[in-house]
## 1
Amino acid sequence: MTQTLTSDAVETLSADLGEPGWLAERRLQAFDLFEKLELPDPKGEEWRYTDVRRFDFSGFDAPVPTQSAPEVTADLADKGVIIADYQTAANDHPDLLKEHFFTDVPTDEHKFTALHGAFLSDGIIVYVPGGIEIAVPYEVFRDLAGGGSTFPHTTIVVGDNAKVTFVDRFRSESHERPSLCASVVEVTAGRGATVNYISLQEWGRNVHHFQTQRFTGHRDSTVRSLAVQLGSKFARAQVESVLTGEGSFSEMLGLYFADSDQHFAQRTLQSHAVPNTTSDLLYKGALKEVSRSEYSGLIKVAKGAQGTDAYQANRNIVLSEKAVARSIPQLEIEANEVRCTHGATVSPVEEEHIFYLMSRGIDRVTAQKLVVFGFFGDVLDRIRVPELREELARAIAKKVEGGQSLEVAS
Amino acid sequence: MADQLLHIEDLHVTVEGREILKGVDLTVDKGQIHAIMGPNGSGKSTLAYVLTGRPGYEVTGGKVIYRGTDILRLAPDERAKEGIFLAFQYPTEVPGVSVVNFLRTAYNAVHPENQKSAMQFRMYLQEKIDLLEIPSELVDRYVNQGFSGGEKKRNEILQMAVLQPELAIMDETDSGLDIDALKHVSAGVNKLATDEVGIVLITHYQRLLNYIRPTEVHVLIAGKVAKSGGFELAEQLEAEGYAGIAKELGLSEEELAEVEGSEVSV
Ligand SMILES: Nc1ncnc2c1ncn2[C@@H]1O[C@H](COP(=O)(O)OP(=O)(O)O)[C@@H](O)[C@H]1O
Ligand SMILES: [Mg+2]
């Protein structure tokens, strides 16, 4: 008999995983919090534009943990590179786990992170010691069954002057029963380190997806993130970049394409805590049919963080009259020698452009594809994994064409 | 009859509830170059758009027969596939879409029997670039974005060369060009004006016709072809302006007001 998201299920999960007592204890504490916390209130800035107060947790099956950590070559393992799933890390690297799990995104942040803390099912930790540069991207696949739940956790710790790229894929078939994913991502880049983190949300249609990504950049580090939303019924991604070391740089890219009745919400934070840091954000989205999206992004410059250079742009292209995109930029600046630029646009596909292309023999759907590609061009160009660029171009084409499979797998 | 490309009969067109074309007749054969001249607002662009199927232009009467069939129900892309091409008066900028990508997509749509790969198309495009003496960097830029007026017009001619239409309508391809650019563009059109192609050259000024010699000239006033003739008609226009023609034709006060209110200089 499968259990739902109850405290009994927490204990079963912990026992099944053979976890040490301190971890089991932590899960139960998190579950306690989950029960005490209200759902996030849209009165607060972070959830203002997306009201989830009526979200119902009761119907989901408890998670079935999988082990999906990518292999580390012997050569890199010898150099101290660790990639381990949560269970392995609990036994073999408890200190790493204690130091880095839930440190940047605490379980008590809101109801979804609390539930995540209780049911964390697919945790992966990546540890790259100082000076090690890994060229080939690591890739992880998360899956989700109909009516199920999953709580993936990705922790990436990169030492001074080290480098790594990580691709987190959230992909499933479309199932009739609704499913839930509550995911947490914590990334720390040491001095002079470079981290590229890419999340690809391509869940099947009946999934509710909640994700919090938090990046910390130490001195002279480079943190690049790309958040892609294509699947699910409802997806909310909160992506935060906190620059705590001088000379650090954060690039934040977002690409989303909603169709039918999909609803995407994104919240970004560019936090400049110290002087002379740079952030560059570009989130681009397309919407068709009766889909919706909200983007709200905050640039926050702390007192004394002089020399901050922050850029934020959210652009939306709307392919139907019934689709709605909202975009809300925010600034909170407490230093005076800074450069902060932001811009937001929501525009329809211009019939004028379509007619021009059609007048040359190009059919309407292909014309729309060209225009939408043109729109996403600058984000695609900035993706550093070429195969991914092509894959996303194909996904975009498929979205424009429609005929996206809404069929339900048994 | 065998050479007849386009036959327009008593064409009435309404835009936003206002009748703009009020019974246009025009027949174009292969190998001919028809100049359509007329004051601003007389309906020249409306005619061009209605031939290419632009939305918003409602045909309320008459017919348009192209190569023996009525094309008014065809979508713009289907008309292009049948060989109709419009060089726009104001070419549209399409952000993020490169000229080469756009043109290859268009070429393969219009010539499905002769599909070209990216590389084959590059070579084909280069031939046209060389033929028309167009700066080749133009094709790697986004369609018309940041193009000068002259570049936009030359890009239109390049598209015509690539797509090889049978009926080319050129809407004020001369406007806004300095004399050098005008010579370039005209030379390009002359190279493309073979016996197999019919050309409708829309212009406000006579000067273009010194470079592209029309076989017939029509004057469009207030939505009607007021007078047709040979090159001498263009010369008469140059000498007398549209007002002179209007008077000669005894146009109504209303029609005359429209002409007099517009720019007449050449
Ligand atoms: N899309 C449109 N919307 C509203 N009015 C239009 C539109 N296109 C043309 N018109 C009107 O139709 C008349 C003829 O315009 P047009 O065909 O552009 O003339 P021309 O090209 O000869 O200068 C003008 O009065 C113009 O204002
Ligand atoms: Mg005009």
## 2
Amino acid sequence: MSELSPSPSRNGETSNHIKYNVSFSSTSKLAVPSIANPTLPTGEPTTAINLENAGPSESSFILEEDDHHLQVVSTSRHSVASDSSYPGSGGQDSEYEEEDGNNVNSSHIEEEALQNMLSDLIRSNRSYVNVRDNSLPLRELSFLDLNIFPNTHEAKNELEFYEKHIQIQKDNDEPAFHQKLKHFFILSTAGKPIFSMHGSDDLIMGYMGIITTIVCTFEESMKEDFKSIMVGDKTKIVVLNKSPLLLVAISQISYELMSSNTDSTSSNKEDKESDSDDILLINQLNTLYKYLLAILSKPTIEKNFHNRMNYDLRKVLTPLDFQNLEALCMKLTYGLPLLNQGESISDTESFDFFIGELMDSSIQSVKVTNTTRMKLNNILLSCKRLKLRDDDSALNRSSETASLIFNRTTKEAEKYLGDDLLFSFLLASSNKILNYMKPKNHSLSNEDMKLLFSMISAAEYQNRGGSFDEDLWIPLCLPNFNPNGFLYVFVKKISLSSYLQSSTVDQYLTIVLVSSNKNTFFQMRELSRFIINKIVKREQFLTTLTDELTGSTKLSILNDIKVPAIKHFIYKLKETNQFIMNDMVHFNNDRSMNTLLQLVYFYSILHNSRATRIKSKLKSTYNQQQGSNFVNPINTYKIDNKKLTYVKWQGAGSIVTGFMLSDNSFEFYCLSNEEIDSKELISSSLKIIRWCEKYRKRLFLGGGVVF
Amino acid sequence: MENDIDIPPPSYKIVLLGDSSVGKTCLVHRFITNKFDQNTANTIGAAFITKKYTSANKPDRQLKFEIWDTAGQERYRSLTPMYYRNAKVALVCFDMNNFETTFKTAKFWIEQIELNGATDASDPIEIRLVGNKMDLFDKPQPEDLTEEQQNRAKDQKQETNNTITFHRTSAKDGSGVTEVFDSIIDNLDDDFFKFYFDKKRAELEAGRDGDQLSNILGSRLQNTATSRCC
Ligand SMILES: Nc1nc2c(ncn2[C@@H]2O[C@H](COP(=O)(O)OP(=O)(O)O)[C@@H](O)[C@H]2O)c(=O)[nH]1
Ligand SMILES: [Mg+2]
């Protein structure tokens, strides 16, 4: 498809690139079968073969152009009744033929149908796919092999590439500035710089001219929300207009420009279409904007600029804000944390954030048993029932600091300790949600939650080990909830193992209490002490919780259900927009930058090419089967609205297969870096999907508990 | 004086104020963990940190410090009264190497405390001016300059009713940090402890244990348990 097609210039760079990655050469032969866009050159080192790319000729799919995406409509040959033999299936595909079509179980039906589709798809692409040179042993893949980024400056290794093109650099070095692959700028509509991802203030001042010129060229259309332009065919500029602020993203990163080849064949491209092309960068800019709203609130920003258009917003931003914005830029673009010189990646927070953002502001959930989750929910709920008794002199005296406030509140006839408590969360390692409690008539959007969690992990940075007793009190505007006002967030991180006699692994829990009243710190603190007390009181519960959290971070499902070839997966539940995934360490046995950038790339491609829709006659077959009782929830899938994407990256010595399957209720993504045939891919994927369905209650917390 | 083991040390509330980046958070961390992290993140809002601490000079004196580490930014100022309400000591910090700017902010905070603390003249907040980053202070005659700073601090003292003490610290190499907290304990009246423990003992005799949170929460919960069943 167009979004996967390489630009000629990028091909040029590929050859540069090969110089340094000799073993990589055969990869570049992989081709994009270009049905919709036959003029495209075939030389992209990474090949996406999804159903869109299936050739119509000998395949049993009918391709229809719809919305500029090709729909794949399977013919009756894919219905279960007649699936036993495939036209054109050769000897080497005999593995696909061993089933006899006598399926009584709809999951088998589904599995076979999907397998058939996928193997057809792969077969139809066989002529394009370069067969891997089997004489070469599988070797470790480098993100440089993937040509994710135009490697024009011939970096010799990953670190050098990172330092030249990725790492944030705030000095006066102009050539270095121009070598960066990604830029973000925030400026006022009057053209005053507020923030820049790279470059010193002096350097930016010069650059602002260019930016304002670009902005001026849109002046007419700046009533619009955003504007996007391509400079050449490998740089995209997107401007988001949030008057009095302008936010600018400039990207040269292949996975961010995927759908940006808007010229040539698709001349009838409508504006709406290009909207969705730009959605990735626009979302990124929105995230930066929301950060400013979160710390300042909308009225503050507007008031400041209302008085003087020339106002310098930097005056109210702190060094931490700039650091947080930089961290956001890195997380949004690369899934990387801000690293100090020589520092290596110590946790996966930034990668988790990236995936959540990629999955449309999805929130990462933590797997615990339903019983444990219910117990924790009940603890949160009981917070709301804690009475502040008039004769609570003991409490009044217990803490001198609290006494004044409590006296005051009792005078005001406040009856409950948690009267001002709006939302509460229990988080595992500060960004994964374990429990959520909300009032009946309010809730927080996923975007607000992500902002909140992101803030919490920034604030917790200084007490990473939870080594001392610290409570945080953070005023924050949650813009989707209310862009005009502040909420007050109480944050307390506890180390569970510090309450246990014997514990090998440490697990941290973060208690987050969001209050509507800025004077309720000591009430929230009291509530947090109550929660801690309830959690640690019974050693058995504490041990169980610690063990479950440890298991959850490991998410050993890939071993449990025997899908050895699948190394990494993401399962997203659409209903609540929550996802789970296994630790990135399973992919390459490390958490290196190299692995992280590969995952970022693979999942970006998989996610951004999710254009294929399967309309299958299976539906009717499936309906006929409705009569029998389906016990397994997986059977309730609607076969139509399923989408499937298959991507294979293949180079000398390494191979990575990516697969995406989605329907109305879930999205599933997985990666394998071993040889895996389509049958195993499908059956392993379905195994994981079924497992996720089966343990849905353990994996996801649903909509939270309501008080 | 005898300290009952059963009786927890008295709480003593301290608030750190001052321009951002003068080293408030680093000072607290040095005091709590005896470590210095070059990459300490800036404070968002405020952090409330507690630590039981025994004076190095008077080992029979222990306090439970309740420390508010605040973010100095303007946009958080509406919250600051809550932080110094009930505070016994304000550590108003400035950067010795960025004296003019950060001392001006320090003066601002002292004025704020005056404005707010003036209502309770019987128990005024004790102000301690802390010049931090002493390790960087490599001016030709450091003694002269710190003396000048000290004099400026003394000038400030004349304008205020609160007592002002002057400290020099380095959160980086640790010098002067525990001394600030030792001096806070050492300067306390014997009566302070005597009064506290007498009161606590009286309470204990009356069969009340004011600090047993679990007791309180236990009774609270009984309340909720009964109210839940309907
Ligand atoms: N050389 C030196 N640097 C310090 C010292 N204390 C803090 N810093 C640095 O000053 C910066 C700001 O410190 P921080 O504690 O965050 O300041 P705060 O905003 O007042 O809390 C950090 O980069 C620290 O590393 C010190 O005693 N000596
Ligand atoms: Mg600080």
